[in-house]
Amino acid sequence: MQKSNNKDDGWIKIFEELDLSTIPIKYISSIRIIFNDKKIWDIDIKKSKEMHSNNETIESSLLKLFDEHHADIKNIDFRLDTKKIKRDIKKKTNTILANKK
Questions:
Q1: Which DSSP symbol is given to 33?
Q2: Residue 28: count of CB within 10 angstroms of its CB
Q3: Which of 9, 10, 26, 101 fits as disulfide partner to 4, beta carbons 3.0 to 4.6 Å?
Q4: Is the pTM of this model over 0.70?
Q5: Where do the domains of the chain lie?
Q6: Residues 65-98: tens digit of each pLDDT
Q7: What are 46-50's contacts with CB under 8 Å, separation 24+?
Q8: What is the C-alpha end-to-end distance of the chain, expressed in Å?
Q9: Other CB atoms closer than 10 Å to residue 43's CB: what's the count?
């Protein structure tokens, strides 16, 4: 395996292998929905989190939206909060490594 000079290459590989149905809402920063008629909706999840006290409300609203419009949706683009993902993975890794000592 050839070592990459780009530190983000490792993250790109991880994100290519992710199953989006298992990504918690806390790691999604925005969603772009592209419809068959070329209309585009951008949903700012970060703003939604500020307005709602829990993630379940946001998840419920998104599921309802996807259910109501699924026949008209061409593509859904989930934009991830990579800084939060990286921070949480590092924190969890440090905890695991500290417990091994």
A1: E
A2: 23
A3: 9
A4: no
A5: 14-100
A6: 988 998 999 998 989 999 999 999 999 888 888 8
A7: 46/81
A8: 30
A9: 17
